[in-house]
Amino acid sequence: MKLLIADDEPLVQIGLKSMIDWGALGIELCGTAANGDAAYDLILQYRPEIVITDIQMPCSSGLELGKRCLDELGHLPVFIILTSYENFEYARAAMRFQAVDYLVKIDLSSQSLSDSLRKAIEQVQLLKQQDSAYAESVSSLDMLKERFYFRLLNNLFESKEQFIHQAGEYQISLDYAGYATASIQLLQDQDIPFNAYDQTLHMLEELLSRYIPCRIIALDTRYLAVIFFINADHLGDWQENVQSALKNTFEMIYKYYNVSFFTSIGRLVTEPLELSSSYYDSKQIMGYLKKESPLLFWDNLPGTSTLRNVFNLSLFRNDIIRTFEELDEQSLHDIFHNVITLLSSDHTHLSRQWTPPGAF
After folding, report:
1. What's the pTM?
2. Stretch 41-64: mean pLDDT
């Protein structure tokens, strides 16, 4: 179980670290912070289950830190509050965001700290138990939603009715004025270990959604897609909003994981079922990305009008299904002959289009 210490007094940090045998309690000290904002950044990075925080700190107080975590991250981490003086109002405020204990520094001892930590550990275990069944059901629903968005990006719904039915069944609301899709490539000198990729993806989801409504679809350990949901009042400046959201998010991730990104964004569409067009736009222009211009919008790249008729294998889906159902070998031969002919005559599109593994 991981724990973070947040206090602006270095002597308090040192005292807490040396006061007890943390390993005996099964606790790993994952970091220290001198203010509330730095503590929040470390919480995002290390995901501690327990935080010991001073109430009075620069940037944001311990109470503000606890409330922010409860609002944005849920019930974990749990908090133990430290203060230099007794004050019932502070204690009552701390309890509002489910702090498990409230300790006065002058009275702090190894025994009182150990007792508080045992309370915190019990609370963490209880919360994890309560969430396990819920998490399992949420995980199953998330998997179905992931498949839904993947099918949406690749134009794999058999009909509009099927799309509407599954959206309702999976509790997906797509009632926005506009939509756009980004293709993103993770860049790092060496292969990204899976745990680092998983942490990067989690942080990307956490941060990006604060700036703009979106859905991230993982494709493999190098590539992902993002669907941006655009409200009516942002249709006019949607590119600026998307670019700002990506810039702020990427800067934070680079700071922690030294991972940078190539990003291409397709055209804005007004219907969810048109998202595949925006997705194919973004894939086509990935070949234009480079270190000097790591982010590009379809509409801002000269000459994209010549790329509009991108080859899309899903257009042949119904014919392929029919030929298999009817065991019509000649029709299947004709379909693949047409596909080969199209691919052979469209070198420009192929050279600029990246297709992620499993897209078809």
Report:
1. 0.54
2. 90
Q: What is the pLDDT of residue 314?
A: 57
Closest to 78 measured CA to CA, from 102, 112, 110: 102
Domain ranges of the chain: 2-128, 154-352
- Residue 252 three-state SS: helix
Sole residue written with tokens 């007794």: 86
Q: Which two tokens stand for residue 278?
A: 């925006």
Can you give the C-alpha Rg of the chain in angstroms? 26
What average pLDDT score do residues 316-332 get? 75
d(C-alpha 124, C-alpha 101), whole Å: 13
Which CATH superfamily, name and number, covers 154-352?
Answer: Reverse transcriptase/Diguanylate cyclase domain (3.30.70.270)
Tell me whether residue 130 is exposed, middle or buried, using C-beta atoms within 10 angstroms of its C-beta: 0 to 12, 13 to 18, 19 or more: exposed
Would you say 285 and 295 are in contact if contact means Cβ atoms under 8 Å apart? no
Q: Report pLDDT digits (tens) over 41-52.
A: 999 989 999 999
Examine the pLDDT at 33 and tell me if it is beyond 90: yes
Which of 84, 25, 21, 71 lies closest to 50 in space, CA to CA? 25
Residues in the chain: 360
CATH code that applies to domain 2-128: 3.40.50.2300
Token output for 138: 């949420």
User: Which residues are 226's β-sheet partners?
Assistant: 182, 216
Over residues 161-169, the mean pLDDT reads: 91
* Structural contact between residues 39 and 13, judged by C-beta atoms closer than 8 angstroms: no
Distance CA 267, CA 162 (A): 25
